[in-house]
Amino acid sequence: MRFRVLAIVAVAYTVGAQLAFVVFDADSIVVLFLPAGVTLSALLLRPRRDWPWILLTVAVLEVLIDVGHGLAPLSALGFAAANTAEPLTGALLVRRAVPGPIDLAQRRHLLAFLAFGVVAGPAVGALIGGTTIALDADRGWFSSFLPFWAGDATGALTVAGTVLTWRRSALPRAATAVLVTVAVTTVGFWPQHLPLFYLPIPLLFWLGFTQPLAVTMPAGLAMTVAANTLTGAGRGPWAALDGPIELKTATLQLFLAVAVLGACFLTVGVTERDRAVGAAHQLQQALLPAVGPQLPGIRVSAGYRPADLTHHVGGDWYDVFAAPDGRIGFAVGDVVGHNLAAAAAMARLQSALRVLAQTAAGPAEVLAGLDRASAVIDGAHMCTVAYADYHPPTRRLRYACAGHPPPLLLTPQGPEFLWEGRSMPLAIEPGPRPCAEHEIPTGAHLILYTDGLVERRGESLHAGLNRLAGTATTAAGQPGTDLTRSLLNRIPHGGPAIDDAVILHLIFEGASAPH
Description:
By secondary structure, this protein is an alpha+beta fold. It folds into two domains: 2-279, no CATH class; 294-508, Phosphatase 2c, domain 1 (4-Layer Sandwich). It has 14 helices and 13 strands. Strands 4, 5, 6, 7, 10 and 11 form a six-stranded mixed β-sheet that branches. Strand 6 (384-391) and strand 7 (396-402) form a beta hairpin. The two termini are 60 Å apart. InterPro entries: Bact_Sigma-Reg (IPR052016), MASE1 (IPR007895), PPM-type-like_dom_sf (IPR036457), PPM-type_phosphatase-like_dom (IPR001932). It comes from Paractinoplanes deccanensis. Pfam families: MASE1 (PF05231), SpoIIE (PF07228). The chain crosses the membrane at residues 29-46, 110-135, 141-164, 171-191, 203-230, 251-270.
């Protein structure tokens, strides 16, 4: 494996160094040095026991290539020292900041890579290499340091960034992105006096917004190579720019680096957003209990739908559990908010309700206890809760609603909203809560839900409730229909939902239903 890695490094380094001399060379000052990224990525991907072999290979190749192009042996040794000290410095610093596997899609890893691998390491190399150029070619030190640093930094950014983010699964998309980027960059950099050099930037940013780094980084490398090649051939605005050569080369690399970095940061931002949305969705699902298909005397299903895709965590919740004396308790609640604070308040209220239900005399006492609990739970003020318990042997349902929409009962006689047992939301008017009872016929459906299912902008609540009753009645009368999914996904409405929606659907069976 070591010899294979050394062979790959040797070939890639040689090709990049030859390009630096033949294609990117401008008045004896290297503009873009791609091998800087080859060595850096090799060090970052391999264990430290392989570093001496990699650096030795690079040093020998650098001397041979430089001497082959007519440089003095002493100058070749100076460049070999620069091109080994540079990646070694960058790799050591990056590894100190990121000890484990490097993932440039994580902001901390990307910043460490940029600060140490792209800025600090090439600066060390430019100190040595710039001094070597200044002594060998009788140039000013700064005019030698600046293009050396800019060329190595851009090479480290684009090549090492591409290698570190490479994924085989993204290869077809990356290849397409590279071809399109080269074509657009050629169009942008071909005219000398027509300012079209910015054309690749929208493409690169679009890739950054829609594609992973495994696609964005190769496109950035393609743009960098194409722009430098065209400039070296006398095309584009930088070839026609008046002024010192070191200023032209440094500003070209700066322009390219800013474009690539902008696309990278955009990609990382989108990736972090997607990861946060996924984590929030998992958190929401973890906080909502898994309900079995059948409990004693009832069958239960439940579902949750966010109002939009910008948030996947909020305060809507449901619960089903065994209560004392053979009863089954079930609840639906709504805490105001669509963030982690609302989810935390929801989780605490849910736990409090379960505890209260084990000792309370009935739903009214459970809600009264939640009034007291909500006073010490941040974010629980003004939340709404519907709680009920059902006794299968007697078929008696007891229920109470604290500011919550009324449960919907479907029987052979038709839909009926249970408006009794209603009171204000939690912590508004602490005190005794009303409770109602209802005898449930076999085969009846009970639907508890949150207001996001029925409320729409510009529409009365009465219209939303009628729509729910009609859709639920139709779905319940069709054998094999998933009523919960029908209500969440197919309920007709005249406008967008303004809140998340939770549904708890219960079907009441005979008293002797299997456990």
